[in-house]
Design a protein that fits this description.
Helix content is about 40%, strand content about 15%. With about 475 residues, it is α/β, with parallel strands linked by helices. The chain folds into three domains: about 90 residues, Winged helix-like DNA-binding domain superfamily/Winged helix DNA-binding domain (Arc Repressor Mutant, subunit A, Orthogonal Bundle); about 110 residues, Aspartate Aminotransferase, domain 1; about 240 residues, Aspartate Aminotransferase, domain 2 (3-Layer(aba) Sandwich), CATH 3.40.640. Strands 6-12-11-10-9-7-8 form a seven-stranded mixed β-sheet, sandwiched between helices. A three-stranded antiparallel β-sheet has the order 13-14-16, covered by helices on one side. The C terminus is likely disordered.
Length: about 475
């Protein structure tokens, strides 16, 4: 039985592949196989997708029939593609397991996931939560707002950052992405415009599109947010909502100053445009610098803040939250029931235990990540000396400026060297950022040195091979 799935045309596949070839006939089939695997890994060729015939591919790429046959044979051998006489070929399964993609005897080092492993303190926190579970198991288990204990501790964390907050202003969600989806559902409808930074988090863009809204990019300046550009965008687009990552912005790792926060909130207040501040990285300040007040401190009634334990504690907890005025909280709760009825109790108790005395745990996390950051920067200077970058003051990745517009080519070729990367254009609304690449430093120092050493080999192999300026890179980030 053939799997369900649509068929992709040869021209469409060629467009997705972009400039996939490194050059030279000998590596053509390997380059094509690596490019196709990247599309599968990134979700742009979902399982079940029917591939064009070899003849159609030969016309669309164009390459020799032998090159295409050899590339497909490699993908069949790896279980990624399956073929049947008379039925053609289709994507049979995901690329690797747990983010690893096999190439020969090696497993790809996954640099697409900018998230650290679990904190050591997670296990004792789980034991505390397990001891508390009998008390909660006697009830119905539905807590649309979140457990009072966890909401209190999240509110206390905001208060400690200079933003007095009560538990009634907190809604616990299943991660920050879930929180963003709930806020979008409340504020925007089909065709509404949402201001976003350019570059910005790809999954946030996909959530805007899933809400049938239109993301409107506002380019980031070299040193951060351009208030004049936001003023022009507000005047021209008439946005219904704005979305910013003010603390260690993903992917640039820049932080919005207090002056910038005040100027932007004043601008949006005059335009009556609500602002969503994504603070998922706020706890990961790696240098000893004074932290600005949260965005909501400058416009209490205007700003909706999103938070998460994924970057600071562990993504597997799937706990996020919304901090807003009580009026907005009541409106959010009225719409939540159509999506879900609350966040799992056990995970909430685990995070509540971790937040009972949060600073020692977070301090150790910051020290660990700061060490990994320094290892990554040293390795980049050694292996990719032609690239430039700022030393991140926080966050989990470094945003590199390449020596040529070859980000997509690097991501494709990297698979042949055991690496998985997110191409620069995936961070842009309509493509672009081809001269940019994010390098996370969430792996161990040993893995980082190995990964960036391989990255230097890849960079050297594609040096001087530009990417067509009119090409468009589509699809979500895995």
């Amino acid at each position: 039985m053939l799997p369900p799935g649509g068929r992709i045309s040869g021209s469409r596949l060629a467009r997705l592949l972009g400039s996939w070839r490194r050059g030279g006939a000998r590596q053509g089939s390997a380059d094509l196989a690596a490019a196709l695997k990247l599309l599968v890994a990134d979700g742009r060729l979902p399982v079940g997708t029917r591939l064009p015939s070899e003849r159609e591919l030969t016309d669309a790429l164009p390459v020799s029939r032998t090159t295409i046959t050899t590339a497909l044979d490699q993908l069949r051998a790896e279980g990624i593609v399956e073929s049947r006489r008379g039925a053609g070929s289709w994507i049979n399964g995901p690329v690797g397991a747990g983010g690893g993609i096999t190439t020969g005897d090696d497993t790809l080092i996954d640099l697409t996931r900018c998230a650290p492993p679990a904190l050591p303190e997670l296990r004792p926190a789980m034991e505390v939560a397990m001891a508390q579970m009998p008390e909660y198991m006697a009830s119905h288990g539905y807590h649309e707002r979140g457990l009072p204990l966890l909401r209190q501790r999240i509110a206390d964390r905001y208060t400690s950052r200079g933003l007095p907050t009560t538990p009634d202003q907190i809604v616990v969600t299943s991660g920050a992405q879930h929180a963003w989806a709930l806020v979008l559902r409340l504020f925007v409808g089909p065709g509404d415009r949402v201001l976003v930074e350019q570059p910005t988090y790809p999954n946030a863009l996909e959530a805007v599109r899933a809400a049938l809204a239109i993301p409107v990019p506002v380019p980031m300046a070299a040193d951060g947010w351009d208030v004049d550009a936001y003023e022009a965008a507000v005047r021209q687009a008439g946005p219904r909502l704005a979305y910013l990552i003010p603390d260690f912005q993903n992917p640039t790792a820049l932080r919005l100053s207090s002056e910038g926060r005040e100027a932007l909130t004043d601008l949006l207040r005059k335009a009556r445009t609500p602002l969503v501040a994504d603070e998922t990285l706020v706890e990961l300040a790696l240098d000893d610098e004074p932290a600005p007040l949260p965005m909501a401190a400058f416009a209490e009634d205007l700003v909706v803040s999103l938070g998460s334990a994924s970057k600071s504690h562990w993504g597997g907890l799937r706990i996020g939250w919304i901090r807003a005025s009580t009026e907005i909280v009541h409106r959010l709760l009225s719409t939540r029931a159509s999506i879900d009825l609350g966040t799992p109790v056990f995970e909430q108790l685990v995070l509540a235990a971790l937040l009972e005395d949060p600073e020692p745990v977070l301090r150790q996390r910051r020290l660990e990540i700061a060490g990994q950051r320094d290892v990554a920067l040293e390795a980049l200077r050694e292996h990719c000396p032609q690239w430039t970058f700022r030393r991140p003051a926080g966050g989990l990745g470094v945003w590199c400026t390449l020596d040529a517009p070859v980000s997509t080519r690097i991501a494709v070729v990297a698979q042949n060297h055991g690496l998985r990367l997110v191409p620069g254009p995936r961070w842009a609304v309509h493509g672009g950022c081809e001269q940019m690449l994010r390098v996370p430093y969430t792996q161990s120092p040993e893995v980082l040195r190995e990964a960036i050493g391989r990255l230097g080999v890849v960079a050297a192999s594609v040096a001087g091979t530009g990417f067509p300026a009119d090409a468009e890179v589509l699809g979500p980030v895995a």
